[in-house]
Amino acid sequence: MDITTLAKKPALVEVKLDNPEIIAAYGEPVSFWMMDHLGITTYFNFYKVQNSEDDTLLNDLLRKIILRSDGTPALAAGEVLPTNITLNILVAINEQLGKSEPKTVEKETTGTQQK
Predict the structure, then answer these.
(1) Residues 38, 62 contacting (CB under 8 angstroms)
(2) Which of 10, 29, 59, 61 could be stapled to 35 by a disulfide with Cβ–Cβ 3.0 to 4.6 Å?
């Protein structure tokens, strides 16, 4: 396979937070936009900053990832989201990033760890 067939420009995708907790708290789903593929630096920083427990770094990174439908940042400098929204956004971003895994990769479904 020619590697150039795998390259594409990132596109905006809408992500909806529509679990019962969010709907109970806000009366409706909450949505945001993000790019379907992130630059490798942003990708690694997203996972690294979650483990660092540095809320300033995490909020700065989320300002880059959480977008409006026109691709502009949804959060201004100094703005933060409620904790329940932020935690659900982190889960949703993880799920979205997982969708970029190639379909040719076979996953073991037995629940045992591979060496």
Answers:
(1) no
(2) 10
Where on the phi/psi map is residue 71: left (φ > 0), alpha (ψ -120 to 50), or beta?
Answer: left
Are residues 34 and 99 in contact, defined by beta-carbon separation less than 8 angstroms? Answer: no
Q: Residue with structure tokens 């904790």?
A: 83
Tokens encoding 5: 């067939």
Q: What is the token pair recorded at 19?
A: 């679990």
Q: Cα separation of 64 and 72, whole Å?
A: 9
Residue count (the chain): 115
| Structural contact between residues 54 and 35, judged by C-beta atoms closer than 8 angstroms | no
Q: Does the global pTM surpass 0.70?
A: yes
Q: Which two tokens stand for residue 12?
A: 């905006």
User: Over the stretch 11-61, which tens digit does the pLDDT of each residue have?
Assistant: 999 999 999 999 999 999 999 999 998 888 888 888 888 788 788 888 999
What DSSP state is assigned to residue 112?
P
Torsion of CA 18, 21, 24, 26, to 10 degrees: -60
